[in-house]
Structure formats: C-alpha cells, structure tokens
C-alpha cells in the first residue's frame, strides 16, 4: 500500500469515528494544536486520558462495591471522567458519564452499576478505535508520509 | 507575526488539577504565543505568585506583608479551573482579589459546568471571563484585551494626580459600601469560611438544571459537529495565522 492509500484509509477511519459519535469536535481541536514542534501532542494527551480513565474506572468499581456507597465520592469520580472525556472529545464516554451522574444524585446503586458497565464499555470501544487510528498514523509516518492535517467532511 | 512576538511577552499562570486539562490549556496558550506556567492547585498558584496561604488564615494580620511578597516572575493573567479539590478556583480568585499586591492580575475562570449562579458569583468577585470547558482556541481571543490593560497600566508613569484620583475614588467607593451596609446587608457580603457547604447544596439543587444545560451544550456541539461545513473556514482561518 502506498502512502496516499494509507492516508486515505486514515481519513476514512477518522471520519467513521466522528460519524459514529465516538469522537466530537473537541478531538479536532486537539489535532489543530498539534504541529511540527509538537508532533505527538494528540497521542500524549490521549495517553494521559487512558491512564486517568483506567484509574477512575478502578476507583469507581471499588466505590460502588462498598456496603454503604459514598455517592458523593462516586459522583466526584464520574465528574472527573466526564471532564477528561469531554476534553479529548470522547463523546460517547462523556454522554455515558452524564447519565451516570443523574443516578448518583438519585443514590440508585443498581442504576449506577449499570452506568459503570456502560461507561467501561464505551471507554474500551473508544480506546480501541483511537489505538487503531494511531497505528495507522505510525504506518504513514514509517512509510515517509505525513498525517493528514485536515479532515474533510464534505465528501 | 509581529503581533505574536509582542504577545509572547505576556505570561499566563494556568491552574488545573487535571493533567489532561493542564496539557490542553498549556498548548492552547502557547499556540496563541503566550508564555505559560502550569500548576495543579490553587495553593501552588498562590505560592508561585508569592503569596503564602497561611498568611491569610490569621485575620488579625494583613494578608500580605509587602516585603516578603516579592513577585519574582511577572504574571499577566491567571486562568484557573473552578472545580478543584481543596482550594477551588473561586477561593483562588478571592485570595488574589483580596491581596493588595495581586489584585490587579486579571483572573479567568474555567468550568465544565454551565451554572449561571456560579458564573455570576465569579464575575462579581472580579473574574474577567468565565470559559466553559473544554476551552477552545476561539475563547483565547478574549484574553488579549485583559492583558493589554494590565500591561499598559504598569507601563504608564503613574502621576501624583492619578494616585490622588484613585484615592478619592477609593474613598468614594468605601463610602458607597458603607452606605450599602447600613441600608441593607447584601448577599455577597463577607461570607464565612464554611462556604463550601452552601455551595454544595446549591450544586445539588442545580443538578436538574445542569442536565438541561448539558443537553443544551450537546445540541450546541452537534451544531458544530464535523458534518457541518462550518469547521472548514474556521480551520483555514487559523491556518493562515499560524
């Protein structure tokens, strides 16, 4: 596969992530902040998001497993996850967090547990998708090409 | 390009407990040609500004002693997250505005939640702007006027006349404040330290409101989603600047 084909493949894949709602406009903002001086900015920020999310999901699993659930604590964790997912444009994780917080307010343990599963699932999905996207980028760079800087959604 | 060189003299202190958001705001500010220092808490921000937290805990002593409060690095603007453990962005704003040596530094608050009472509280306390997170490049255009204001204030030779005027003005303001206090206690009168409690109840009350706002934001974002061609001119515009 030549570089041009790889770049087209990258564009198609990135587009599908937006069309399926995994990513929103905030991810484009991140890409915009990446330049020759900071060629790895998106990967760096997204890696921080992965680390942060995994810690929060672990904390949430633990917090909801207690006898007397501390809903304030649970809400604080979900609030953080909502913030970081919204900062990188992981739209479906963010939306799952919004629903989650409503059940924290209701102090509904069962619904919170369902929401946790939902958030975990969305997180795993977007993580896989982003890792695939980054792999395609590595292949392009290895073949001497550059990552398309602008996503065209008109076509 | 000439503008970028001039702006690079402006130094912004960014405060956020989230490492992701610190990375993001740092890049946003650097892309806009500002010098940036990031810290992860309000107390570290005060430390950087040369104001020690414990100086404020004792109300009988002045919050800032003029000698040891030497600000080593000039900071032209502080941009801080609202929701942080320990000292919130609002607490930090108050500490800055209560300090005679720091109060001229413009403060901008960022929050992921669109809570109107929170926004007005921050603006009343002296915040210059309130940004909804995630902060975008377009938001940063609003910082420039505030920074120029402080810069020119500092550069201007302060004449005796101006000092006199400001003293008169201060005197008048004090009188107005005193009159106000005599007439009716205002809701934003000095609040007790146990302020986090009423804040939480307000937050609880506004959960449902938040949901509505989140939905609003969602529709806003959908409007800005990549499918619309609005993004394209925006990028090309930015591309020519960079």
Report on this structure.
The complex is a heterodimer of chains A (155) and B (242). Chain A contains 6 helices and no strands. Chain A has helices at 3-19, 25-32, 41-64, 71-88, 91-106, 109-142. In chain A, helix 4 (71-88) runs antiparallel to helix 5 and helix 5 (91-106) runs antiparallel to helix 6 (109-142). The longest helix of chain A has 34 residues, at 109-142. Chain B is an alpha/beta fold and 242 residues long. Chain B folds into 3 domains: 7-156, 3-Layer(aba) Sandwich (Rossmann fold), CATH 3.40.50; 165-204, no CATH class; 206-242, no CATH class. Chain B is 53% helix and 10% strand. Chain B has helices at residues 2-7, 19-31, 42-49, 54-57, 89-98, 116-124, 137-140, 144-155, 160-183, 196-205, 207-223, 231-241; strands spanning 11-15, 35-39, 77-81, 107-111, 129-132. In chain B, strands 2-1-3-4-5 form a 5-stranded parallel beta sheet, with helices on both faces. The interface between A and B is medium-sized, with 39 and 31 residues.
Features of this protein?
heterodimer, A: 155 residues, mainly alpha, Four Helix Bundle (Hemerythrin (Met), subunit A), 6 helices, 0% strand, elongated, B: 242 residues, alpha/beta, 3 domains, five-stranded parallel beta sheet, 5 strands, globular, CheY-like_superfamily (chain B), Response regulatory domain-containing protein (chain B), transcription regulation (chain B)
Strand and helix map with partners:
The complex is a heterodimer of chains A (155) and B (242).
Chain A: H1 3-19, H2 25-32, H3 41-64, H4 71-88, H5 91-106, H6 109-142
Chain B: H1 2-7, E1 11-15, H2 19-31, E2 35-39, H3 42-49, H4 54-57, E3 77-81, H5 89-98, E4 107-111, H6 116-124, E5 129-132, H7 137-140, H8 144-155, H9 160-183, H10 196-205, H11 207-223, H12 231-241
Parallel strand pairs in B: 1-2, 1-3, 3-4, 4-5
Helix pairs in contact in B: 3-5
């Amino acid at each position: 596969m030549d570089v041009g084909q790889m770049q087209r493949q990258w564009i198609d894949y990135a587009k599908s992530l937006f069309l399926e709602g995994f990513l929103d406009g905030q991810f484009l903002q991140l890409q915009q902040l990446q330049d020759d001086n900071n060629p790895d900015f998106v990967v760096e920020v997204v890696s921080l998001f992965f680390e942060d999310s995994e810690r929060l999901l672990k904390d949430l699993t633990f917090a909801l497993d207690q006898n007397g659930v501390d809903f304030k604590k649970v809400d604080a964790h979900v609030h953080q996850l909502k913030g970081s997912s919204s900062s990188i444009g992981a739209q479906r994780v963010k939306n799952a967090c919004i629903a989650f917080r409503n059940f924290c307010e209701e102090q509904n343990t069962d619904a919170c547990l369902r929401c946790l599963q939902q958030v975990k699932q969305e997180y795993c999905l977007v993580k896989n998708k982003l890792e695939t996207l980054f792999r395609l980028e590595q292949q392009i760079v290895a073949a001497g090409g550059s990552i398309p800087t602008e996503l065209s959604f008109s076509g | 390009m000439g503008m970028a060189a001039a702006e690079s003299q402006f130094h912004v202190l960014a405060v956020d407990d989230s490492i992701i958001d610190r990375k993001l705001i740092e890049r946003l500010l650097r892309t806009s040609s500002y010098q940036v220092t990031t810290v992860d808490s309000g107390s570290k921000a005060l430390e950087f500004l040369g104001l020690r937290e414990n100086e404020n805990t004792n109300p009988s002593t002045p919050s800032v002693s003029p000698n040891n409060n030497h600000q080593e690095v000039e900071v032209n603007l502080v941009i801080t997250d609202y929701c942080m453990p320990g000292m919130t962005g609002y607490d930090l704003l108050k500490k800055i505005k209560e300090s005679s040596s720091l109060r001229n530094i413009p403060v901008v608050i960022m929050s992921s939640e669109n809570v109107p009472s929170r926004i007005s509280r921050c603006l009343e306390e002296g915040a210059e702007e309130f940004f909804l997170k995630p902060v975008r490049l377009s938001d940063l255009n609003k910082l420039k006027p505030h920074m120029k204001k402080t810069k020119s204030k500092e550069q201007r030779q302060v004449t005796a006349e101006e000092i006199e005027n400001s003293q008169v003005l201060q005197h008048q303001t004090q009188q107005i404040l005193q009159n106000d206090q005599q007439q009716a206690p205002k809701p934003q009168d000095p609040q007790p330290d146990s302020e986090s409690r009423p804040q939480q109840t307000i937050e609880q009350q506004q959960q449902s409101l938040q949901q509505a706002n989140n939905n609003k934001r969602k529709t806003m974002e959908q409007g800005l989603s990549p499918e619309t061609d609005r993004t394209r001119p925006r990028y090309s515009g930015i591309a020519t600047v960079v």
